[in-house]
Amino acid sequence: MKKKAQIIGVMGGGSASPEAARKAQRLGELIADQGWILLNGGRSAGIMEASAKGARSRGGLTIGILPDDHAGHTSEFIDIPILTGMGSARNAINVLSSRVVVACPGGAGTVSEVALALKTMRPVILLDFDVGELFAGAEKNGLLFRESTPEGVVERIKALLAREP
Amino acid sequence: MKKKAQIIGVMGGGSASPEAARKAQRLGELIADQGWILLNGGRSAGIMEASAKGARSRGGLTIGILPDDHAGHTSEFIDIPILTGMGSARNAINVLSSRVVVACPGGAGTVSEVALALKTMRPVILLDFDVGELFAGAEKNGLLFRESTPEGVVERIKALLAREP
Amino acid sequence: MKKKAQIIGVMGGGSASPEAARKAQRLGELIADQGWILLNGGRSAGIMEASAKGARSRGGLTIGILPDDHAGHTSEFIDIPILTGMGSARNAINVLSSRVVVACPGGAGTVSEVALALKTMRPVILLDFDVGELFAGAEKNGLLFRESTPEGVVERIKALLAREP
Amino acid sequence: MKKKAQIIGVMGGGSASPEAARKAQRLGELIADQGWILLNGGRSAGIMEASAKGARSRGGLTIGILPDDHAGHTSEFIDIPILTGMGSARNAINVLSSRVVVACPGGAGTVSEVALALKTMRPVILLDFDVGELFAGAEKNGLLFRESTPEGVVERIKALLAREP
């Protein structure tokens, strides 16, 4: 594992369709292949479980920022569980700690993370997650992007990392 | 002021158009007239300032959940400033502490509050704040509503308070 | 109730001896008599319950900053329950939001609040709560005080409010 | 680096005497030698900087739970900076996320971490940090320990990890 690696946040629902889970797992693999660290919500469910599983399978490092104050719901594929005991308030930490945020399909919690990320000027890449025209301004300003494949997401992250200091 | 009054959250942008500010101020007045407590983000700007000003003008009680760890940005119309020192993580407190959440026009921060409110099953009323089809499920399930006047919002709140325990 | 009233934080254990509870209740009465707002941890137990009961009995306003994300443990004597859903992380909010912090007998949670208050330069008055020599520097610098009666605490608060802007 | 390694929290002041810094650095080295992950407050100062420097020098992994919402104060020896933007409220996360907490000399912030750790039943080892008789109960119950050398701390951690599941 490389030290001082970039941290890529992967957000998404606690439940996930088979296709969404498959793409999240693949995204986790690709993130690990790049030597990036994967950060997510840490639970053993949905996009969190799938993306951590993918990253772990390639030897990547996985960080989970958990809403819980105990380890009971933590994914087995999380190397570093950060227990916040703060419920959804931890969503703010998820995005602050990520260099780039990828939003996979999810519900209101995932929308809150997209919104908080944009508010703190973290670039957001939507992977098959439709937020309509809600953040059209951010799209225009090159802060919000849409992709439909894990490979496309990774290319987009590379471009973002190259663009900014 | 009535004790054990209902707490109504009013969210919205730190900057506001004249019309949005006018409606927020009117909403504050009507909330105070009902004997409800107004809760918002507490800052001396935009929807926060306008709604607190309205409530205060009618003798209502106003609570501000500030992102700051100091009082420098607090609206003069806030009776009870709660300094969280937590930035946007305090958005989760805003909605948890509100019986009903009203979302006036705002940016990404306001979207995050709508999303967090729905996630924790707080009813949300959009006052001229268009979130597209993003939360269509919540609209169908009677958790998200759209209104175009402060008076309409208050009637909606009354119905919600009557409906639930 | 006076608007823009000073907020006085009263901290202490979730369980309390009869004497400690009696003094906390009396302190709540005196705080209300001064027109100050009482802020505490909000739960229906120990020092929290006793101090809120005292303040309420004199028509004072009571604010509870709860660790919970639901209302189930809230004292009936709390007028304004702020649900943080953050567990002990909310201790930081308790002290940031208080003009002066009074620490009644308690356990590790109360010690954490004394420490956090001093760290953020909030004056702390210990009411029968012995912290040994741990904060001797703060005592020398006029930030930490010891009292043995609710009346003494109130006189100390008055002096502190007069001293500072 | 070993996956699923134990996370050891090292707390202490933002300023440190030469001797305290030397011991914290040595403690960091020993923690890394054991294959444990070091977690601290993440800033480039005092005990935080020294302990991270020690762990890094032996190839250990270092996590910093920062109070800040930006990277400006982060130690160069931190591999994984978690930006909370929550000020001292993040102290609760520090201790929740640690399997064992070591408290080096510090001020009120460090005392708050000792207190929060004990409240959540995390074992605490004091390395030259005198808290008087404040937590005498925890000492009796085998939750709080005193050591005067980094080597003694590591032996104590080993015993604690062996004792508990």
How would you describe what is shown here?
- Four copies of one chain form a homotetramer.
- In chain A, helix 1 runs parallel beside helix 2 and helix 1 crosses helix 6 (150-163).
- Chain A starts with 6 loop residues before the first strand and ends with a helix.
- Chain A has one domain: Rossmann fold (3-Layer(aba) Sandwich), CATH 3.40.50.
- The mean pLDDT of chain A is 96.
- The first copy, chain A, is globular, with a radius of gyration of 14 Å.
- Chain A is α/β, with parallel strands linked by helices.
- Helices cover 39% and strands 18% of the residues of chain A.
- Chain A is built from six helices and seven strands.
- The interface between A and B is medium-sized, with 24 and 24 residues.
Task: Give the SSE layout.
Four copies of one chain form a homotetramer.
Chain A: E1 7-11, H1 18-33, E2 37-40, H2 46-57, E3 62-66, E4 80-83, H3 91-96, E5 100-103, H4 108-119, E6 124-127, H5 136-140, E7 144-147, H6 150-163
Parallel strand pairs in A: 1-2, 1-5, 2-3, 3-4, 5-6, 6-7
Give keywords.
6 helices, globular, homotetramer, alpha/beta, 165 residues, 7-stranded parallel beta sheet, Rossmann fold
